[in-house]
Protein backbone atom coordinates (compact mmCIF):
# COMPACT_ATOMS: atom_id res chain seq x y z
CA UNK A 1 0.00 0.00 0.00
CA UNK A 2 1.21 3.52 -0.80
CA UNK A 3 1.17 5.95 2.13
CA UNK A 4 1.73 8.94 -0.16
CA UNK A 5 0.81 9.46 -3.81
CA UNK A 6 1.82 12.63 -5.63
CA UNK A 7 0.01 13.15 -8.93
CA UNK A 8 0.92 15.75 -11.58
CA UNK A 9 1.97 18.43 -9.08
CA UNK A 10 2.71 21.88 -10.47
CA UNK A 11 3.82 25.03 -8.69
CA UNK A 12 4.53 28.26 -10.55
CA UNK A 13 5.90 31.61 -9.41
CA UNK A 14 4.86 34.03 -12.17
CA UNK A 15 6.66 32.49 -15.18
CA UNK A 16 8.95 30.47 -12.89
CA UNK A 17 8.13 26.72 -12.86
CA UNK A 18 9.41 25.44 -9.51
CA UNK A 19 7.64 22.07 -9.88
CA UNK A 20 6.54 21.06 -13.35
CA UNK A 21 4.15 18.06 -13.53
CA UNK A 22 5.82 15.66 -11.06
CA UNK A 23 4.25 12.35 -9.98
CA UNK A 24 5.48 9.52 -7.75
CA UNK A 25 4.25 7.00 -5.17
CA UNK A 26 5.83 6.13 -1.79
CA UNK A 27 5.10 2.68 -0.30
CA UNK A 28 4.30 2.48 3.41
CA UNK A 29 7.31 1.75 5.61
CA UNK A 30 9.88 2.57 2.93
CA UNK A 31 12.79 5.02 2.89
CA UNK A 32 12.29 7.18 -0.18
CA UNK A 33 14.98 9.43 -1.60
CA UNK A 34 14.03 12.79 -3.12
CA UNK A 35 17.21 13.65 -4.98
CA UNK A 36 18.52 16.49 -7.05
CA UNK A 37 20.94 19.43 -6.96
CA UNK A 38 20.24 22.70 -5.16
CA UNK A 39 17.42 24.53 -6.93
CA UNK A 40 15.90 21.35 -8.36
CA UNK A 41 12.49 21.93 -6.77
CA UNK A 42 12.85 19.50 -3.84
CA UNK A 43 11.96 21.97 -1.09
CA UNK A 44 8.93 23.26 -3.00
CA UNK A 45 7.72 19.66 -3.37
CA UNK A 46 8.15 19.05 0.36
CA UNK A 47 6.30 22.23 1.26
CA UNK A 48 3.35 21.12 -0.86
CA UNK A 49 3.39 17.67 0.75
CA UNK A 50 3.34 19.27 4.22
CA UNK A 51 0.63 21.78 3.32
CA UNK A 52 2.85 24.86 3.66
CA UNK A 53 2.26 25.58 -0.04
CA UNK A 54 -0.78 24.63 -2.10
CA UNK A 55 -0.14 23.21 -5.59
CA UNK A 56 -1.36 25.16 -8.59
CA UNK A 57 -2.34 21.86 -10.20
CA UNK A 58 -2.29 18.19 -9.25
CA UNK A 59 -3.24 16.23 -6.15
CA UNK A 60 -1.75 14.54 -3.08
CA UNK A 61 -3.19 11.36 -1.55
CA UNK A 62 -2.19 10.53 2.02
CA UNK A 63 -2.97 7.15 3.60
CA UNK A 64 -5.56 6.34 0.93
CA UNK A 65 -7.48 9.63 0.90
CA UNK A 66 -7.05 13.23 -0.30
CA UNK A 67 -4.50 15.06 1.82
CA UNK A 68 -5.79 17.75 4.21
CA UNK A 69 -3.09 19.90 5.77
CA UNK A 70 -4.90 20.60 9.04
CA UNK A 71 -6.17 17.10 9.69
CA UNK A 72 -3.08 15.19 8.55
CA UNK A 73 -0.30 17.40 9.94
CA UNK A 74 -0.25 15.46 13.23
CA UNK A 75 0.77 12.36 11.24
CA UNK A 76 3.72 14.12 9.59
CA UNK A 77 7.10 15.06 10.99
CA UNK A 78 9.10 17.58 8.92
CA UNK A 79 12.70 18.55 9.61
CA UNK A 80 13.54 21.35 7.15
CA UNK A 81 17.02 22.15 5.94
CA UNK A 82 16.70 25.62 7.51
CA UNK A 83 16.55 24.87 11.23
CA UNK A 84 13.55 26.27 13.11
CA UNK A 85 14.49 26.14 16.79
CA UNK A 86 13.91 29.12 19.07
CA UNK A 87 17.37 30.23 20.20
CA UNK A 88 16.32 31.66 23.59
CA UNK A 89 14.25 28.66 24.69
CA UNK A 90 15.70 25.88 26.80
CA UNK A 91 16.11 22.50 25.12
CA UNK A 92 13.44 20.62 27.07
CA UNK A 93 10.96 23.52 26.83
CA UNK A 94 11.50 23.67 23.07
CA UNK A 95 10.89 19.98 22.45
CA UNK A 96 7.90 19.88 24.81
CA UNK A 97 6.34 22.94 23.15
CA UNK A 98 6.65 21.44 19.65
CA UNK A 99 5.28 18.08 20.86
CA UNK A 100 2.20 19.76 22.30
CA UNK A 101 1.67 21.64 19.04
CA UNK A 102 1.43 18.20 17.42
CA UNK A 103 -1.32 17.24 19.88
CA UNK A 104 0.70 15.25 22.43
CA UNK A 105 -0.38 15.33 26.08
CA UNK A 106 2.15 16.75 28.54
CA UNK A 107 2.71 13.42 30.32
CA UNK A 108 3.20 11.40 27.12
CA UNK A 109 5.53 14.03 25.70
CA UNK A 110 7.62 14.11 28.89
CA UNK A 111 8.03 10.32 28.87
CA UNK A 112 9.13 10.37 25.23
CA UNK A 113 11.52 13.27 25.90
CA UNK A 114 13.18 11.34 28.73
CA UNK A 115 13.60 8.32 26.44
CA UNK A 116 15.07 10.20 23.48
CA UNK A 117 17.28 12.52 25.55
CA UNK A 118 18.86 9.45 27.15
CA UNK A 119 19.19 7.69 23.79
CA UNK A 120 20.91 10.71 22.23
CA UNK A 121 22.96 11.48 25.36
CA UNK A 122 21.74 15.07 25.78
CA UNK A 123 20.27 14.91 29.30
CA UNK A 124 23.00 17.21 30.57
CA UNK A 125 21.89 19.85 28.03
CA UNK A 126 18.13 19.78 28.67
CA UNK A 127 18.11 23.06 30.69
CA UNK A 128 20.53 24.90 28.39
CA UNK A 129 19.30 27.46 25.87
CA UNK A 130 19.32 26.39 22.23
CA UNK A 131 21.84 29.13 21.39
CA UNK A 132 24.33 27.53 23.80
CA UNK A 133 24.40 24.28 21.82
CA UNK A 134 26.76 23.37 19.02
CA UNK A 135 25.32 23.05 15.52
CA UNK A 136 25.50 19.25 15.75
CA UNK A 137 23.74 19.22 19.13
CA UNK A 138 21.01 21.50 17.76
CA UNK A 139 20.61 19.07 14.89
CA UNK A 140 19.98 16.22 17.33
CA UNK A 141 17.40 18.30 19.22
CA UNK A 142 15.66 19.14 15.94
CA UNK A 143 15.59 15.46 14.98
CA UNK A 144 14.04 14.48 18.33
CA UNK A 145 11.45 17.25 17.96
CA UNK A 146 10.53 15.89 14.52
CA UNK A 147 10.01 12.26 15.53
CA UNK A 148 8.72 12.62 19.11
CA UNK A 149 5.00 12.42 18.24
CA UNK A 150 5.47 9.21 16.23
CA UNK A 151 4.52 10.42 12.73
CA UNK A 152 3.41 8.06 9.98
CA UNK A 153 5.40 10.14 7.47
CA UNK A 154 8.81 11.53 8.39
CA UNK A 155 10.36 14.11 6.06
CA UNK A 156 14.07 14.82 6.50
CA UNK A 157 15.59 17.60 4.40
CA UNK A 158 19.42 17.33 4.48
CA UNK A 159 19.38 15.72 7.97
CA UNK A 160 23.15 15.14 8.15
CA UNK A 161 24.11 18.76 7.50
CA UNK A 162 26.61 19.94 10.13
CA UNK A 163 26.93 16.55 11.83
CA UNK A 164 30.22 14.82 12.57
CA UNK A 165 30.53 11.17 11.43
CA UNK A 166 29.58 9.75 14.84
CA UNK A 167 26.35 11.73 15.17
CA UNK A 168 25.53 11.23 11.49
CA UNK A 169 25.81 7.47 12.08
CA UNK A 170 23.58 7.79 15.16
CA UNK A 171 20.79 9.49 13.24
CA UNK A 172 21.24 7.12 10.29
CA UNK A 173 20.68 4.13 12.59
CA UNK A 174 17.54 5.75 14.00
CA UNK A 175 16.24 6.27 10.45
CA UNK A 176 16.63 2.52 9.83
CA UNK A 177 14.96 1.70 13.16
CA UNK A 178 11.98 3.94 12.46
CA UNK A 179 11.51 2.41 9.00
CA UNK A 180 11.57 -1.09 10.50
CA UNK A 181 8.82 0.01 12.90
CA UNK A 182 6.63 1.10 9.96
CA UNK A 183 7.43 4.80 9.59
CA UNK A 184 7.53 6.01 5.99
CA UNK A 185 10.51 8.31 5.42
CA UNK A 186 11.28 10.87 2.73
CA UNK A 187 14.99 11.63 2.67
CA UNK A 188 15.78 14.75 0.65
CA UNK A 189 19.33 15.61 -0.34
CA UNK A 190 21.55 16.81 -3.16
CA UNK A 191 24.34 14.46 -1.95
CA UNK A 192 23.42 11.41 -3.95
CA UNK A 193 26.13 9.17 -2.51
CA UNK A 194 24.42 9.25 0.91
CA UNK A 195 21.21 7.60 -0.26
CA UNK A 196 22.59 4.47 -1.91
CA UNK A 197 22.87 2.68 1.44
CA UNK A 198 19.76 4.28 2.97
CA UNK A 199 16.93 4.42 0.43
CA UNK A 200 14.74 1.67 -1.00
CA UNK A 201 13.53 3.82 -3.89
CA UNK A 202 14.14 7.30 -5.25
CA UNK A 203 12.93 10.03 -7.55
CA UNK A 204 15.49 12.21 -9.33
CA UNK A 205 14.44 15.79 -10.12
CA UNK A 206 16.21 18.63 -11.84
CA UNK A 207 14.99 22.17 -12.51
CA UNK A 208 11.43 21.29 -11.56
CA UNK A 209 11.14 18.15 -13.68
CA UNK A 210 11.22 14.48 -12.79
CA UNK A 211 14.06 12.67 -14.54
CA UNK A 212 13.41 9.13 -13.32
CA UNK A 213 12.10 7.16 -10.36
CA UNK A 214 12.08 3.57 -9.08
CA UNK A 215 13.94 1.20 -6.80
CA UNK A 216 17.62 2.02 -6.24
CA UNK A 217 18.81 -1.47 -7.24
CA UNK A 218 16.45 -1.51 -10.23
CA UNK A 219 17.69 1.85 -11.51
CA UNK A 220 21.35 0.87 -11.17
CA UNK A 221 20.66 -2.36 -13.06
CA UNK A 222 18.75 -0.45 -15.74
CA UNK A 223 21.74 1.79 -16.48
CA UNK A 224 24.56 -0.73 -16.07
CA UNK A 225 27.14 -0.92 -18.85
CA UNK A 226 28.09 -4.61 -18.41
CA UNK A 227 31.43 -3.74 -16.86
CA UNK A 228 33.24 -6.17 -14.55
CA UNK A 229 36.34 -5.98 -12.41
CA UNK A 230 38.47 -9.11 -12.08
CA UNK A 231 41.74 -9.51 -10.17
CA UNK A 232 44.30 -12.31 -10.13
CA UNK A 233 46.90 -13.63 -7.72
CA UNK A 234 49.66 -13.40 -10.32
CA UNK A 235 50.47 -11.46 -13.52
CA UNK A 236 48.39 -12.54 -16.51
CA UNK A 237 49.72 -13.39 -19.94
CA UNK A 238 48.25 -10.79 -22.35
CA UNK A 239 47.21 -13.67 -24.58
CA UNK A 240 44.74 -14.76 -21.89
CA UNK A 241 42.80 -11.53 -22.52
CA UNK A 242 42.09 -12.47 -26.12
CA UNK A 243 38.57 -13.88 -26.22
CA UNK A 244 35.22 -13.34 -27.86
CA UNK A 245 33.39 -12.99 -24.54
CA UNK A 246 34.66 -9.57 -23.41
CA UNK A 247 36.69 -6.50 -24.32
CA UNK A 248 39.51 -5.27 -22.10
CA UNK A 249 38.80 -1.69 -21.03
CA UNK A 250 41.82 -1.01 -18.80
CA UNK A 251 44.32 -2.62 -16.44
CA UNK A 252 45.00 -1.62 -12.81
CA UNK A 253 48.02 -3.66 -11.59
CA UNK A 254 46.72 -7.24 -11.32
CA UNK A 255 43.10 -6.10 -11.76
CA UNK A 256 41.33 -5.66 -15.08
CA UNK A 257 38.17 -3.82 -16.12
CA UNK A 258 36.28 -5.86 -18.72
CA UNK A 259 33.20 -5.11 -20.81
CA UNK A 260 31.05 -8.17 -21.43
CA UNK A 261 29.90 -8.72 -24.99
CA UNK A 262 26.09 -8.69 -25.40
CA UNK A 263 25.67 -12.38 -26.28
CA UNK A 264 28.05 -13.69 -23.59
CA UNK A 265 27.33 -14.42 -19.93
CA UNK A 266 29.17 -13.83 -16.66
CA UNK A 267 29.87 -17.56 -16.50
CA UNK A 268 31.53 -17.37 -19.92
CA UNK A 269 34.03 -14.83 -18.54
CA UNK A 270 34.80 -16.89 -15.45
CA UNK A 271 35.06 -20.13 -17.43
CA UNK A 272 37.55 -18.49 -19.79
CA UNK A 273 39.98 -17.75 -16.95
CA UNK A 274 39.37 -21.01 -15.12
CA UNK A 275 40.55 -22.82 -18.26
CA UNK A 276 43.72 -20.72 -18.15
CA UNK A 277 44.44 -22.16 -14.66
CA UNK A 278 44.93 -18.73 -13.07
CA UNK A 279 43.96 -17.76 -9.52
CA UNK A 280 40.98 -15.38 -9.41
CA UNK A 281 41.09 -13.29 -6.21
CA UNK A 282 38.26 -10.85 -6.97
CA UNK A 283 35.30 -10.62 -9.34
CA UNK A 284 32.47 -8.08 -9.29
CA UNK A 285 30.09 -6.26 -11.56
CA UNK A 286 30.62 -2.49 -11.69
CA UNK A 287 27.32 -0.67 -11.40
CA UNK A 288 26.96 3.07 -12.02
CA UNK A 289 26.47 5.42 -9.07
CA UNK A 290 23.27 7.42 -8.77
CA UNK A 291 25.34 10.56 -9.37
CA UNK A 292 26.64 9.14 -12.67
CA UNK A 293 23.12 8.15 -13.73
CA UNK A 294 21.76 11.59 -12.86
CA UNK A 295 24.43 13.44 -14.85
CA UNK A 296 23.89 11.12 -17.82
CA UNK A 297 20.12 11.64 -17.83
CA UNK A 298 20.37 15.44 -17.57
CA UNK A 299 22.80 15.50 -20.49
CA UNK A 300 20.52 13.26 -22.56
CA UNK A 301 17.51 15.50 -21.91
CA UNK A 302 19.42 18.62 -22.90
CA UNK A 303 20.86 16.95 -26.01
CA UNK A 304 17.40 15.81 -27.08
CA UNK A 305 16.14 19.36 -26.75
CA UNK A 306 13.68 18.63 -23.95
CA UNK A 307 12.83 22.01 -22.35
CA UNK A 308 14.06 22.21 -18.75
CA UNK A 309 12.73 25.30 -16.98
CA UNK A 310 14.75 26.56 -14.00
CA UNK A 311 13.25 26.02 -10.56
Descriptive key words:
2 domains; 31% helix; single chain; 29% strand; alpha/beta; 311 residues; Rossmann fold; Alpha-Beta Plaits; six-stranded mixed beta sheet; 14 strands; globular; four-stranded antiparallel beta sheet
Topology:
Layout: E1 2-13, E2 16-27, E3 31-35, H1 42-49, E4 57-62, E5 65-66, H2 69-72, E6 76-79, H3 91-101, H4 106-119, H5 135-147, E7 153-157, H6 165-180, E8 184-189, E9 201-206, E10 209-215, H7 216-222, E11 227-232, E12 246-252, E13 255-260, H8 266-275, E14 280-286, H9 290-303
Parallel strand pairs: 3-8, 3-9, 6-7, 7-8
Antiparallel strand pairs: 1-2, 1-4, 4-5, 9-10, 11-13, 11-14, 12-13
Organism: Chitinophaga costaii
Pfam families: ABC_tran, DrrA1-3_C
Domain ABC transporter: 4-232
Explain what this protein looks like in three dimensions:
The structure is a single chain. The protein is α/β, with parallel strands linked by helices. It folds into 2 domains: 2-221, Rossmann fold, CATH 3.40.50; 225-286, 2-Layer Sandwich (Alpha-Beta Plaits). 31% of the residues lie in helices and 29% in strands. It is built from 9 helices and 14 strands. The strands form 3 sheets. Strands 6-7-8-3-9-10 form a 6-stranded mixed beta sheet, sandwiched between helices. The protein has a 4-stranded antiparallel beta sheet with strand order 2-1-4-5, with helices on one face. Strands 12-13-11-14 form a 4-stranded antiparallel beta sheet, covered by helices on one side. The longest helix has 16 residues, at 165-180. It is globular.
Amino acid sequence: MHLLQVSHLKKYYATHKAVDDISFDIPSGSIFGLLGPNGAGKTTLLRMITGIFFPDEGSITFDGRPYHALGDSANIGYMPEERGLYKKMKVEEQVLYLAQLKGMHYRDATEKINYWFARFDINSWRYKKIEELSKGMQQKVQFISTILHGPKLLILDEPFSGLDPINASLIKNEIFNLAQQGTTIIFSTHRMGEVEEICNSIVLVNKGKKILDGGVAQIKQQFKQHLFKIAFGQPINPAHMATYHFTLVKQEDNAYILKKNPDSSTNDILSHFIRQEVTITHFEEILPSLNEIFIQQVQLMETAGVPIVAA
